[in-house]
């Protein structure tokens, strides 16, 4: 088939080379005949090859023609089907039916959605309507607070905002919402009118007699027994408190405060109480005509005091000590009241001569105190300077430069605290004795407490610090108010510096038992009492503005607490050391063995040494009652621990009991000086027996340990008799302790069983004494 595919070049069929070189040369007749002959020959070859090719591929061409015929046949069949479908569509248009079905589906879904929304809306409307019905029912039965809270919830649900009309139609909103808002408005107006009627019933003014009645149990229409507090609470919840108090405030200003400012009357107060229930039924304020109007109008002291009394009556009897309610009342009364005070009093007493400005300081002081009292009673806001109208009118601008002096005072206080020495020589640490004369009177560090006749030792730093504070406060009394106020703050901050500096400076000493910690404790007590006395000593002479702000009493509890913390820390350190010493005795076991006995004896001696060291440090420095209680806590820890260890022993030999008894006697012998010091301190002016009772009250385990020493050498029957008589219970022994003690000393026998049975049968003593002892402990605490 190459012949068919490849092209034939005519020049190849020519024999003349010239013709090959020049394609445009004309052919001669021989050449043309030759060319024709050769073309025919070549054509025959081509036909022969084509024929042979077709014959060799006959099957392939037959298959190809068969497939072509099938394709044509199927194409004609498909064309017929398409023609039939087109005819069917042209006769029945299906797109119209599909469009109608889709449109109907969309409409149905829209209708379902609208009905669902309507059902939800209907549910909300029914709920709101039920809520309104509940509110109306609450109003009818007198549950006005619940009704007010319900109205507040409905207001939010209905989208009613303050200042908007409830009848206003919102575009796109269901009409029923407008109807519900209208009904809410009607209900709101009814509740508001009802509350105003209650207020009118509660607060009544008698113009003829100048008497104001405030009634606490109210009845309006068919609603009985509603409390005035409930009415105020409902008004507050409903948001109409301003509306309710406006008229009351106006009447109080007109008939109560105005006559007082014009010095025409003074108030008298009275309360009527229900004898059966004890509740206050009515509070009465009567305005009595003033007998002396001239003296009242000179300095304003009487006028201010009278107004404060009236405001306190309103605060207590009308506003029930509720700050927001009182502020609401003040917003209606204070502007008019302050204008009256300025026009009728302050403007008339302001001096017109500079030489008399000093005389006006008293009025400025009274005016400032008056506004402070009103702030405390919450008639005016303590944080809003706009309410300080009287002070602004009375005050003149004064510019002072007191900050530098304040810094100098604080720097001096800090330096003397940092440079202080809390170590006393031995001549300063002599026992104070029992009110006997001695050279201790000449020691500068031994001072008298302000509210006690006792003397005790303090550090030089505390004395110098108080000297600085006293000098600063004396200057406050002579300085102008602004400067005086800075000096007052400097004096107070100087005291606070002790609390900040000393615990840091002496941190190491506070972590161990030593003299410095005791001096810090005494300093705190001294500063606490001196702080209490500063107000009495200087405050009456302070400038008015300083007096209003000066407070010293808050320092006393801080120093008192610091003193207690330091002392308790020292006591716990001592008790910890004592417990370590007692631990060395190994629970006082096997003391019948010489090695164990010597170990226990050494432990007892160590305990006595520690306690004696505590006595040497504490007794000359601490106040007697503090020394007594502190040392009692230490001894109680020692005696209770030793008694507990001995009572926990089991199976004691006879020789062991004698050795334990010896150790207890040794302990009391070594601690005799400490016990005697406690008897001397706690039993002053008491007989000897009463002194011992006082000591055992402070140290309950003392009697127990003494009795335990006796029990170690006592027959079983005697022990049983002592329990039955209540003697052991009074010594704080418990039933279980005594039973274990008997089992550890006496072997099992019929006698031991009998005695234990008797002890169990007579344990009522323990319960009774435990009750009495707990009561006594509570009283002592």
Key terms:
mainly alpha; disordered C terminus; mitosis; kinetochore; centromere; extended; 8 strands; four-stranded antiparallel β-sheet; 781 residues; Centromere/kinetochore protein zw10-like protein; Zw10_N
Mean pLDDT across residues:
79
* Poorly predicted runs of 5 or more residues: 396-401, 432-442, 776-781
Global shape? extended
Give a short account of the largest sheet: 4 strands, antiparallel
What is the share of helical residues?
Answer: 55-70%
Measure the end-to-end span.
Answer: 133 Å
Give an overview of the whole structure.
The structure is a single chain. Helix content is 70%, strand content 6%. The chain is mainly alpha-helical and 781 residues long. The protein has 32 helices and 8 strands. A hairpin with a 2-residue loop joins β3 (217-220) and β4.
SSE order and pairing:
Elements lengths: L1 H4 L11 H5 L7 H28 L1 H34 L2 H48 L2 H14 L17 H28 E4 L4 E5 L1 E4 L2 E5 H11 L2 H21 L3 E9 L6 E10 L6 H4 L1 H18 L4 H27 L7 H20 L12 H6 L8 H16 L27 E3 L6 E3 L2 H19 L2 H25 L1 H4 L4 H24 L5 H6 L5 H29 L10 H25 L5 H24 L6 H17 L1 H11 L5 H11 L1 H12 L4 H9 L2 H4 L4 H11 L4 H12 L2 H17 L1
Antiparallel strand pairs: 1-2, 2-6, 3-4, 5-6, 7-8
Helix pairs in contact: 5-6, 5-7, 6-7, 6-8, 7-8, 9-11, 9-12, 11-13, 15-16, 15-17, 16-17, 16-19, 19-21, 21-22, 21-23, 22-23, 22-24, 23-25, 23-27, 24-27, 25-26, 26-27, 28-31, 30-31
InterPro entries: Zw10/DSL1_C_sf, ZW10_C, ZW10_C_2, Zw10_middle, Zw10_N
Family: Belongs to the ZW10 family.
GO cellular component, one term: cytoplasm
């Amino acid at each position: 088939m190459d012949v068919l595919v490849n092209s034939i070049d005519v020049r190849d069929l020519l024999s003349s080379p010239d013709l090959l070189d020049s394609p445009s040369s004309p052919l001669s007749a021989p050449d043309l005949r030759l060319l024709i002959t050769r073309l025919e020959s070549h054509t025959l070859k081509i036909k022969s090859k084509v024929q042979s090719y077709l014959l060799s591929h006959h099957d392939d061409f037959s298959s190809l023609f068969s497939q072509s015929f099938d394709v044509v046949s199927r194409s004609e069949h498909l064309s017929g089907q398409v023609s039939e479908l087109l005819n069917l569509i042209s006769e029945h248009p299906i797109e119209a039916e599909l469009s109608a079905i889709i449109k109907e589906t969309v409409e149905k879904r829209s209708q379902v959605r609208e009905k669902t929304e309507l059902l939800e809306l209907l549910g909300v409307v029914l709920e709101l309507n039920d809520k309104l019905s509940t509110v109306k029912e609450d109003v009818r039965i007198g549950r006005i607070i619940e009704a007010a809270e319900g109205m507040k919830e409905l207001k939010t649900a209905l989208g009613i905002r303050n200042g908007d009309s409830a009848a206003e139609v919102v575009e796109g909103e269901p009409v029923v919402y407008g109807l519900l808002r209208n009904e809410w408005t009607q209900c709101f107006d009814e509740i508001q009118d009802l509350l105003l009627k209650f207020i009118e019933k509660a607060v009544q003014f008698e113009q003829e007699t100048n008497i104001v009645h405030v009634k606490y149990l109210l009845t309006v229409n068919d609603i009985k027994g509603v409390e005035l507090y409930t009415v105020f609470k409902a008004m507050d919840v409903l948001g109409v408190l301003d509306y309710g108090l406006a008229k009351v405030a106006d009447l109080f200003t007109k008939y109560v405060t105005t006559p007082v400012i014009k010095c025409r009357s003074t108030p008298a107060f009275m309360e009527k109480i229900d004898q059966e229930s004890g509740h206050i039924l009515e509070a009465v304020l009567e305005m009595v005509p003033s007998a002396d109007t001239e003296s009242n109008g000179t300095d304003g002291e009487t006028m201010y005091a009278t107004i404060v009394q009236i405001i306190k009556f309103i605060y207590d009897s009308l506003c029930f000590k509720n700050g927001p309610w009182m502020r609401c009342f003040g917003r209606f009364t204070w502007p008019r009241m302050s204008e009256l005070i300025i026009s009728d009093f302050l403007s008339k007493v302001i001096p017109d001569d500079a030489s008399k400005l000093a005389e006006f300081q008293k009025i400025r002081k009274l005016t400032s105190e008056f506004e402070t009292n009103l702030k405390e009673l919450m008639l005016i806001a303590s944080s809003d300077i706009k309410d300080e109208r009287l002070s602004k009118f009375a005050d003149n601008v004064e510019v002072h430069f007191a900050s530098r002096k304040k810094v100098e005072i604080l720097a001096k206080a800090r330096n003397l605290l940092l440079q202080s020495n809390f170590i006393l020589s031995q001549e300063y640490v002599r026992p104070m004795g029992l009110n006997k004369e001695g050279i201790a009177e000449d020691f500068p560090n031994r001072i008298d407490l302000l509210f006690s006749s006792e003397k005790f030792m303090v550090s030089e730093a505390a004395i110098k610090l108080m000297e600085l504070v006293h000098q600063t406060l004396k200057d406050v009394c002579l300085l102008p108010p602004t400067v005086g106020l800075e000096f007052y703050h400097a004096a107070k901050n100087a005291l606070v510096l002790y609390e900040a500096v000393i615990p840091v400076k002496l941190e190491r000493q506070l972590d161990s038992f030593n003299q410095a910690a005791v001096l810090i404790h005494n300093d705190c007590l001294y500063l606490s009492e001196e702080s209490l006395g500063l107000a009495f000593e200087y405050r009456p002479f302070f400038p008015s503005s300083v007096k209003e702000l000066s407070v010293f009493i808050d320092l006393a509890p801080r120093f008192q607490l610091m003193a207690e913390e330091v002392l308790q820390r020292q006591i716990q350190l001592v008790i910890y050391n004592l417990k370590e010493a007692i631990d060395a005795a190994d629970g006082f076991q096997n003391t019948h063995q010489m090695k164990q006995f010597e170990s226990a004896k050494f432990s007892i001696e160590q305990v006595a040494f520690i306690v004696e060291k505590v006595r040497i440090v504490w007794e000359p420095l601490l106040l007697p009652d503090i020394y007594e209680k502190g040392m009692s806590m230490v001894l109680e820890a020692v005696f209770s621990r030793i008694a507990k260890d001995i009572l926990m022993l089991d199976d004691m030999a006879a020789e062991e009991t004698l050795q334990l008894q010896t150790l207890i006697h040794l302990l009391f012998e070594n601690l005799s000086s400490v016990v005697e010091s406690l008897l001397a301190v706690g039993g002053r002016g008491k007989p000897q027996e009463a002194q011992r009772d006082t000591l055992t009250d402070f140290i309950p385990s003392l009697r127990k340990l003494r009795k335990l020493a006796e029990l170690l050498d006592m027959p079983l029957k005697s022990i049983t008799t002592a329990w039955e008589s209540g003697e052991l219970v009074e010594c704080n022994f418990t039933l279980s302790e005594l039973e274990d003690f008997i089992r550890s000393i006496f072997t099992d026998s019929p006698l031991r069983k009998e005695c234990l049975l008797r002890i169990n049968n007579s344990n009522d003593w323990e319960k009774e004494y435990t009750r009495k002892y707990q009561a006594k402990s509570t009283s002592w605490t």
